[in-house]
Amino acid sequence: MVTTKLRNSDNCDFGDLDVSKSKHMMTYEHSSGGFVLKDIDTILPGTSTIPSQFVSTVIDQIDIDSIEFTGIDGGTFT
Known about the structure:
Layout: E1 24-29, E2 34-39, H1 40-43, H2 52-61
């Protein structure tokens, strides 16, 4: 049977999800076989670490008028 709720899963224990865990993201850690919370800043470092030439190339190659945004679906969490 597949677990559909995190609270019923035996491979994640995040403790109290309070303000100290704000800006954390749930990731799967293969070595432990479980889910862990990681500070989002360690996963997605600030834009200052992205080379400006890369940013310029992306901006030049994306036609913003051809992008159709229909919303974001992050799944269901209960």
